[in-house]
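Fold this: DMA protein
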Amino acid sequence: PPPHLLAEVLSCQPDAPSLSLSVTLDGRALSWFHFPGSRWIPETPELPPWPEGLETPGELLPETQMCREILGILGKQLGGLLPQARGIPVVSVFPARPPSPGDATTALVCLVQNIFPPSLAISWTVAGAGVTRGVTLGPFVPNPDLTFGRISRISVTPRPGDVVACVVTLGKDNATTVVAYWVAPDTALDEQLDMALAGAALALGLVLALLGLGLALLARR
């Protein structure tokens, strides 16, 4: 069987969040440590909680202090000598699950990849208006290529044709913005299109049946 990669990545940086710690399996987040609350949080409610007594906040303190010390030393020595590495985020918006007939509420996922450094803000707009209610924001998840990913979710009840935008903002001065869009489908038009296609298929079937009957009569003659 192919090997599996269990990774635990601790990162520190001058920008917020100054500290982040995630545990992943084959690139999928399992748990992450919430430093302000000093607790482990599973990525999804279906996952089991972090085992008690395993990597407690007291045990993580020396590692975080060492990370900050290394960052301070390297920052002073390499400042101005090496260019700062930055990634251009790749943003996509899609429904969390296929829409169900008669369900007006839609759960959308905004997936942001190729993040480096792990510092950006994610916001949502629906029909041009900012939305904060029903929005959840996940942690920065490390990838094997040394970049990070992040997911934000929102539950909305859009009208047909409404444009939902996921806005990703980078930098302290908000100088760079990447936007991805999702347009609410018109279910009424979809039903009309389905009926039109069904009618066209029925008409085509009748024409082919009459044509076959005519060919059969000609063959008898």
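The chain has two helices and 13 strands. Residues 6-78 form a domain with the Class II Histocompatibility Antigen, M Beta Chain; Chain B, domain 1 fold (CATH 3.10.320.10).
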